Amino acid sequence: MAGSLELIKKFMRAWGDGDLDGVVQLLATDCEFRGTTGALPGVSYKGVEAVKAAIAPLVSPQSPVSVTATGYYATADSVTVTWTSVDASAQQNKTMTGIDLFLIQDGKIVLKDAYRKVYG
Q1: Contacts of 68 (CB under 8 A, 6+ apart)
Q2: Which secondary-structure segment (H or E) carries 54?
Q3: Which of 37, 55, 58, 90 has the fewest CB atoms nearer than 10 Å to its CB?
Q4: pLDDT value for 40
């Protein structure tokens, strides 16, 4: 359990720092990302290259979105993270709360499934 929790804490730090390469190195080759934003919310991206392309705009030092983890709940092969996020861009300026489910296999993230609520 400690290994899974530390892996996801490392992931969340890299995401928050805008470190795309740091995030990607924690993903399994056959990973899946189920997003909540974009042209088609809820779209699944499969494979590390597809996931990297999908999250690149979100995981960037220039991103106007900040994410703060508010809780971690771990088992041996999964971690659930609750979070708050603020999008300070001129178009959005919204606060969100959300929850991510991570599945871990062989020390790598195989699934990040995200859910969110948006507030004005």
Answers
A1: 16, 83, 84, 85
A2: helix 48-55
A3: 90
A4: 64
